[in-house]
Design brief:
single chain, 287 residues, alpha+beta, Immunoglobulin-like, C8orf32 fold, 2 domains, seven-stranded antiparallel β-sheet, five-stranded antiparallel β-sheet
């Protein structure tokens, strides 16, 4: 499916600021499930862009604006072709072999970043108890990942006012509420608590046709989880919507948690009083 994304980030400052240095992680990846055919970035005030790949392979655009300014606008536009994953064709191995792979030194060395807890994904007694409520059956870790995806969707209430960008898994467990970032961190922590590599994914989720064909609803960036199923590979799961990742999802990048894949981040010199406005438009293109 061909999908177009327009993403605008606008900072408005109460007074003039200067020496703004920023990083953008807003370029869709090209992988086995999606191809990015076109991507543009505009900066106002005009700034030169420096592009590189970070440790996790995410495309980063960095820029600086030295002169005083009262507003910073970042616009990106991308065209991406996505496809569904044919789950029936996935390679599967027996549960005992999956366990042996998980315990192998080779796998643990390769994916150590996605096995260790972080500030966002700390493994507490409460988290371990929650994860233990989902049994690993004869179908192995793929089935377990589907179970916990459904469980988080069932057990927690989506509430954009309950948490904030710095909320941790312990907060989500206590409140039983959160947003996609919280749901993703919770599932990642649960996976890591049983020794299963998991990583945080940022991107977009097309739902326009599910809204009666109308785009008159607030769109936003989205977050989900990729789990490394032993013997199969990395597979995407979205606990916020209780679904496996398919053509509706456009991936920007991945990391250990949200901190590794913040879409726009930077520093500047001047007043702390600012207004942030983000608008996202995700639409399906014909043809």
């Amino acid at each position: 499916m061909k999908i177009e994304i327009n993403h605008v980030t606008r900072y408005t400052y109460a007074e003039s600021v200067a020496d703004s240095v920023n990083e953008l992680r807003l370029t869709p990846r090209t992988n086995y499930r999606q191809s990015c055919f076109h991507h543009e970035v505009w900066i106002e005030p005009v700034a030169s862009l420096f592009t590189y790949e970070d440790y996790f392979g995410n495309r980063v655009h960095s820029f600086s604006v030295s002169k005083p300014h009262r507003e910073l606008v970042i616009k990106t536009k991308a065209t991406v072709v996505t496809q569904d994953q044919n789950w029936d064709l996935l390679k599967r191995v027996p549960l005992e072999e999956q366990r042996e792979l998980l315990q192998s030194e080779r796998l643990q060395n390769r994916y150590i970043e996605y096995l260790l807890p972080t500030a966002y994904t700390e493994v507490t007694k409460e988290l371990s108890a929650y994860a233990a409520g989902f049994e690993i059956g004869p179908d192995g870790y793929y089935d377990w990942a589907k179970q916990i995806t459904e469980g988080i969707y069932r057990d927690f209430t989506y509430d954009p006012y309950a948490t904030h960008v710095h909320s941790k898994v312990s907060d989500t467990l206590q409140l039983k509420r959160g947003v996609c970032q919280d749901y993703a961190h919770l599932m990642i922590a649960a996976c890591r608590s049983i020794g299963l590599p998991a990583r945080y994914v940022s991107g977009y989720h097309f739902v326009g046709d599910l809204q009666g064909g109308s785009a008159d609803f607030e769109q936003a960036s989205h977050a989900w989880v990729e789990v490394h199923v032993p013997g199969t590979g990395w597979l995407g799961f979205d606990p916020t919507n209780n679904s496996e990742v398919g053509w509706r999802y456009v991936k920007l990048g991945h990391g250990r948690d949200y901190k590794d894949i913040v879409p726009v981040k930077g520093v500047y010199r001047g007043t702390a009083r600012q207004i942030l406005d983000v608008t996202v438009d995700v639409r399906r293109l014909e043809g």
